Amino acid sequence: MINERVRLISSIRKMQLFKKYKDKTKCWWCGSRNLSREHKYKKTDLELLYGKDYTINKKISKIAFRTERKGKFLQSSSSTHAKFRRCLCIDCNGRKSQNADKAYQKLIEYYYDNQIKLIKDGEISLRSIFSNEWEEGIRNVHRYIAKHIGCRIAELGFLPSKNLIDFLNGNPTCEDLKIVLQIKPYQFGEIENPIECIFLGPFIPVNCSPNKNKDVITSFLGWYTFVNFSWNYLHEPGIGKSNMTKEIIKLDIIDFKDSEVLEISLKEETFERDWALGLEKIEYYPFLGNNRDLDLYDYIKNYV
Ligand SMILES: [Zn+2]
To answer: By mean pLDDT, which of 134-138, 177-181, 267-271, 288-292 is the weakest?
Structure first.
């Protein structure tokens, strides 16, 4: 009996792949205490679509920034609602991640200028964005996403894996991260007029081990969408070396054609709520059943 319990406890420990983020006064990346707030919605993404200032007459409706059911008005691209809680230090948020931020911004700007072409091609050429430095370019895009994941994990009270932090510190590969790029071409009317919103998807902890203890988490996944362009991510120890070695990246283009998911009825009195729920469905599509989180997990994990 005692041996059984010891065995169970040690197997739980082995599966406790993500450490708890105990001291919230420390940066999750480097341990420094000089904390700042990283943007949840990338500042350059917000400014590309809406400019800097959304006060009074230029107030951006919260529906553009719905994060599941908790939408907030943003006053400007620097609004605290657009940021994570303090969990990353000034140096990690600034100097150390500058190249990652810039590479991500380059990718987004390229996408924004070439949306129709990319939907038709179903692929993206990294050389067109980063020229001969495309390998370092995509590595840095992944580092930006890794930084975003680190902040989301910290908000849930955990720390990312050491392997992910080593990658942020300059290691060329990351075995614990998989990213799938997708385009979800939903619009009302013509394809040239997409709905220009940013959608911060949910951040989902998953337990894929046979041990169903509620404290066991084996993986974190989620996504972020900038005007129909989604980056899905899976942070799981050993998930793979990620797709950083190909110059041409396949884009998974979602086909909404025969789906009723785009038929959203928007009533005037409940407009924002209707739209938020409708948008959430569209963003989750085609995973709409009770197991949608695990279906999404399987999709990212098995995507080639
Ligand atoms: Zn730091």
So the answer is: 267-271
CA angle 247, 249, 254 (to 5 degrees): 170
pLDDT digits (tens, 9 = 90+) for 253-273: 999 988 888 888 888 887 777
Residue whose structure tokens are 């409708």: 278
pLDDT at 212 over 90: no
Backbone angles phi, psi at 238, to 5 degrees: 80, 15
Q: What is the pLDDT of residues 53-97, one digit of tens each?
A: 877 655 455 445 454 445 566 778 888 888 999 999 999 999 999
- CB contact at 8 A, 139 and 244: yes
User: What is the whole-number distance in angstroms between the Cα of residue 91 and the centre of ligand 1?
Assistant: 6
Q: Which residues surround ligand 1, an ion (CB under 5 A)?
A: 27, 29-30, 32, 89, 92
Region for residue 11 given its phi and psi (left: phi exceeds 0; alpha: psi -120 to 50; beta: otherwise) = alpha
Distance 211 CA to ligand 1 centre (A): 33
Measured between alpha carbons, how far apart are the two ends of the chain, in Å?
45
Burial of 104 (0-12, 13-18, 19+ CB in 10 A): buried
What separation in Å is there between the alpha carbon of 96 and the centre of ligand 1?
9
Query: Cα(193)–Cα(214) distance, rounded to whole angstroms?
Result: 44
DSSP state of 265: -
